[in-house]
Every structure is written in C-alpha cells, then in structure tokens.
Amino acid sequence: MKVPDLPPAPPAPPTSRKAVAAWCLFDWATNGWPTVVSSFVFAAYITRAVAPNPEVGTLWWGVATAISGIVIAVLSPIFGAMADRGGRRKPWVGAFIAMTIVVSLFLWFIEPRPEHLLLGVFLIALGGTTFEISQVFYNAMLSDVAPRGKVGRVSGWAWAAGYAGGLTCLITALVLFVLPEPPLFGLDPEMEEPTRASAFVVAAWFILFGWPFFVLVPDRPSSGLRFGLAARAGLAQVRESLRTLLPKYRDIAHFLLARMIYTDGLNTLFVFGGIYAAGTFGMGFREILVFGIILNIAAGLGALAFAWVDDWIGPKRTIIISLVCLIVFGTVALLVETVQALYFAASALGIFIGPVQAASRSMMAQISPEHMKTEMFGLYALSGKVTAWAGPFLVGWATYLADSQRVGMATILLFFVVGLLLLLPLKAPARD
Question: In sequence order, what are the residues at sequence separation of 6 or more whose Cβ sits closer than 8 angstroms to the Cβ of residue 299?
C-alpha cells in the first residue's frame, strides 16, 4: 500500500511556562497506575489473594503482562502514525487515559476468589495497554512543549514528577485504605476491600492532577483529514517506516536497538528487585515496600538532578554515564550481605535509573523527524516491549540452573553492558 501524498501536519503553537508545568504535572497524575497497580498493591493482591496460590498468580500475571506488551508493540506505531497525519494528539491522550480510569474503577469488583482471577488479569492487561498507548502521544508532545535547548531538562523534570506522583499516590492509598486497623470507612478486610479501594485513589489521581494538561498544554491543530483517511495513511506510513527504518533512519534504528536492550534490564530490575530482596535478604512485605519506595525516590531525585546535565552534555552522554554507574552499583548490590548495604546499593542504583529513562525520551525527541514524532514514539514504545520477556526469562532460568538469586540477577548487568556497547558508536543528536 503506497503512502498517500498528504500535506504535512500543522506546526505546534507557541508554548509557555504554564504549559511546561502542566505537561510535567501530567507525569505526576498518571504514574499512580504503574506504581500502585503494576508494581505494588494490585500486583501483590492478584498473585497472593485472588489466585489459588502464588505460583498460579505469578503465571497469570506474567501472561497478562506479555499479552499487554504484544498489543502495545503492535498498536503503538499505528496509532502514532495516525496521529501524525491527523495533527492533534491531546484527544488521543484523553481517550486512552479515560479508558484507563474506567479500568481502574472496575478493579474494585475483583474479589479475593479464584474465579475472579481471569477477570482480574484481563483488566490489568487492558489497563496496562491503554495507559502505555496514552504515553506514546504524551511523549511525542515533548519537543513541542519544551523551550528550545531545554528538551532534556523538561523531560527530566517530568520524569521526576512522575516518580513523586506515583509514590505520593501509593502512600495516599496505603494511609487511607491499606494500613489502618481497623480499616476506615467501614471497609471489610475479609473481602480485601481496603486493598481494592486503592484503585479509587489511582482513578482520582488521573482526574485531580491530569486536567491542567488538557486545559493549558497547546496541541497541534487538526490537519482536517477524515479519520478513515488518516487511519489508512497511518497504516501505510508504518509499513513504509519499518521497511526503510534501517537504510533511511539508521541512527534511529541503532538507538532503538540499544534502548531495547538496556530497557529490558531496567524493567527486569523493577520486576525482580523486590523478589531478590525477599528471597536473598528475607525482607517482609513492609520492608519490601520501603525498599521499593527508596528505589523510586532515588530514581526521581536522579531524574531531577540530571535534567540540567542532559541539556549540558547531551542525552547520549547522560545515558552512557548512567549505564556505567548502573553496572557498578548493580555489581555492588549483588555482592553485599546485609540489608543496610542493600539499601545503600539500591539508593545508588535508583539515582541513575531515572536519568536513563528521561534522557532516552529526550534523545528520541531530538533525533525523530519533525513530521513523524508520534509514529517514532510508537516505535519507541515498541522497542520497550517487543523483547520484554527476555530479561525475566534469563533471570528465571539462571536462578533455577544455578540455584542462586544472585547469579540470576547478575544477568541484568548483561543487558546494561550490551546496551552500553551498542550506544557508544552512535552519533550524538545535534544540540539546539
């Protein structure tokens, strides 16, 4: 199918400090989902309380995550290309965030019964998919919102706000519902109602802090294309982009490959960090929560601190420095023997997790062609999901074969090393 000859998308309108602040606040508003649902409260609830046993729960959680990742990988570039053709991005963000809010509210109905397991993992997969696709359009607006020469800074600010917002949402849910004994508002602990009610906090977080984005952040005007034509053009453009990505956009393909590898390491670190802390160091549930909170606070502070560094030395050098430090402190985390030393290593690791993620986003914004921003961020999302199974697979099998979590977790360092080696020869993006 030939790509239709269509007029380029209209340019973005001028931005302002209020728009920058509202764009960063949206990261705060939306990170309740990955923090409360995907990482802490509902992850533990589904696998331990809803499933008949933790092994079955872990299996189905993994299946839901894998299915969600496949759908995201397939749909993100397509929706991104359609948005590039149509011009506007905020309606897409709003539609997918609205679906995520609805899914969050429906999580209340997942009772601690094995017969609710499939519905629970279906909702988790659906919400994870709609959330991640919303981020494709949101991320693509970065270069339109950020003032010239401050793309890295704004990306870092937003990433730090996201960590802070997610943790504040988690703490709010814990204080209001999960931790009080007896539970507030007459919630029944036998039916896990305090845990299930934390989903209401996630939904409220989206609404309370997300509205300034839709009011204050300027969007590109519509190109005037009908939806059907934009859809056909978008599908054709994705096929053409995938066909020509390597010969025509070699630097982008090179970066996406490197980013795919080291992002697998980051994602696996978050998935297995708590499991490693519990299995090797004997941490209980509350200690694991503290461990996760420390890791996220450090990552947020690192993203904030390196926001200026990104604009100063460029995103490529920022990623390289962060990956080197992740390798060093990751090795320390594998060698320490005490809980206190693990806390120190986790804090040091966290400081460099945020900058890798924030600088990767700003680098993608800088190397993407202006008329293909959203589509390229769709490919960016694909690169973060298409091999998401590889890290957990290697950690699981290495742990099993060596009968050692330390050996299993050491495979994560390989992802950082390979990603770093792939990134080194890449030409740095031009500075504003």
Answer: 163, 350, 351, 353, 354, 357
Work out the angle between the directed axes of helices 285-313 and 250-281 (0-180°, nearest 10): 150
Average pLDDT over every residue of 180-205: 88
Please tell me the distance from the alpha carbon of residue 361 to that of residue 312, in angstroms, as a whole number. Answer: 16
Phi/psi for 14 (5° steps) reads -60, 150
DSSP per-residue string spanning 12-77: PPP--HHHHHHHHHHHHHHTHIIIIIIISHHHHHIIIIISSSHHHHHHHHHHHHHHHHHHHHHHHH
Distance, CA of 259 to CA of 315 (rounded, Å): 12
Which residues does 70 contact at the CB level (< 8 Å), separation at least 6? 385
User: What is the rounded CA–CA span in Å between residue 80 and residue 194?
Assistant: 38
pLDDT of 33: 92
- List, in order of start, the domains of the chain with CATH numbers: 7-243 (1.20.1250.20), 250-368+389-425 (1.20.1250.20)
Strands (E), 129-181: none
- How much helix, strand and coil, in percent to the nearest 5, is found in the chain? 80, 0, 20
Instruction: Report the predicted TM-score, pTM, of the whole model to 2 decimal places.
Output: 0.76
Contact assessment for residue 32 and residue 166, using Cβ atoms and an 8 Å cutoff:
yes
Report how far residue 169's alpha carbon sits from residue 190's, in angstroms, rounded to the nearest whole number: 24
- The separation between CA 317 and the C-alpha centre of its own chain, rounded to angstroms, equals 22
DSSP string, 256-287: HHHHHHHHHHHHHHHHHHHHHHHHHH---HHH
**Measured distance CA(252)–CA(70) in Å, rounded:** 21
Left, alpha or beta for 311 (phi > 0: left; psi -120 to 50: alpha)?
Answer: alpha
pLDDT for 230-289, tens place per residue? 666 666 666 666 676 666 778 888 888 899 899 888 877 876 676 677 677 777 656 767
Q: Is 240 exposed, middle or buried (0-12, 13-18, 19+ CB in 10 A)?
A: middle
pLDDT band, very low/low/confident/very high, at 301 (cuts 50, 70, 90): confident
11 cis-preceded (ω within 30 degrees of 0) = no
For 406-418, give one letter per residue: b (16+ CB within 10 A) or e: eebbbbbbbbbbb
